[in-house]
Design a protein that fits this description.
The complex is a heterodimer of chains A (178) and B (60). With 178 residues, chain A is mostly helical. Chain A has helices at 12-16, 20-41, 45-62, 72-93, 98-102, 118-128, 132-143, 148-155, 159-177. Chain A has two domains: 1-103, Orthogonal Bundle (Rna Polymerase Sigma Factor, Chain: A); 112-178, Arc Repressor Mutant, subunit A (Orthogonal Bundle), CATH 1.10.10. Chain A has nine helices and no strands. Chain B has 60 residues and is an all-alpha fold. The chains are: A mainly alpha (178), B mainly alpha (60).
Chain lengths: 178, 60
């Protein structure tokens, strides 16, 4: 299976009109990538599925007010990340889920990774050892191809802090790959 | 060194059945959103019509 295009072209004007084809196009372009982003942040498959759905429900409900120049991927990734953080905060209050949160994130297994090569599995394992803050900046900039200023907006950081975090994350990943 | 701009990680996809189920839920939400927008337009039309009727009645 080939990788999806890095910046799929979704018609935001049509999305603002709640055009069914545009909503399908946005979903097809971004849902798998949001799912992968959440799984690699440490969400279980069930939680990632739930949050992908909530992200796109929010997209539909906000679509009429989107700006024409909205970068859809960055918008969806911001919402998904915020939902995941919120989910984790609530999970801390739910005693039945403490064990799930205490466990370190498990990298996705080979069965989940489509056509993974040995090199890709090495990177997955190395990525999973990084702190979440470093993992997410790498996934956004290097994985999803966001511009550093877009990643900064997703992360709620300024450009310089994002640049520094990215540099640390690259060093940590190289270290983990040794 | 990490290849740039691509991180060599494999596609990680939700199961096809899950993907389809979520897409159906999103489509259903879009239908509800379109109905809300249409109702909003209809209510605005009614309000405008009522206002025009009231102005005409006062003027008459």
């Amino acid at each position: 299976m080939s990788a999806p295009p890095r910046d799929p072209n979704v018609d935001v004007a049509a999305l603002r009109r709640l055009d069914a084809a545009a909503i399908d196009a946005a979903y097809d372009a971004w849902a798998p990538r949001i799912f992968a982003f959440l799984r690699r942040l440490g969400a279980s498959a069930e939680v990632a599925e739930e949050l992908v759905q909530e992200t796109f429900v929010r997209l539909v409900n906000h679509a009429p007010t989107l700006r024409e120049d909205t970068r859809l991927g960055a918008w969806c990734l911001t919402v998904a990340r915020n939902l995941y953080r919120s989910h984790r905060r609530w999970a801390w209050l739910d005693g039945t889920r403490l064990l799930e949160l205490a466990a370190p994130p498990r990298p996705p297994g080979p069965a989940e990774l489509t056509a993974a090569t040995e090199l890709q599995l090495r990177y997955e394992r190395a990525l999973a050892t990084l702190p979440e803050a470093q993992r997410e900046v790498l996934l956004l900039v290097v994985g999803e191809g966001l511009e550093p200023q877009e990643a900064a907006a997703v992360l709620g950081l300024n450009a310089e802090a994002t640049r520094q975090r990215l540099a640390r994350a690259r060093r940590a990943l190289e270290e983990a790959l040794r | 060194m990490i290849p740039d701009p691509e991180l060599p990680i494999a596609p990680l996809l939700p199961p096809a059945a899950v993907h389809a189920r979520i897409r159906d839920a999103v489509r259903a939400e879009a239908r509800r959103a379109r109905i809300r927008v249409a109702e909003g337009v209809l209510h605005a039309g009614f309000a405008l019509g009522a206002l025009a009727w009231a102005v005409a009645a006062v003027a008459a």
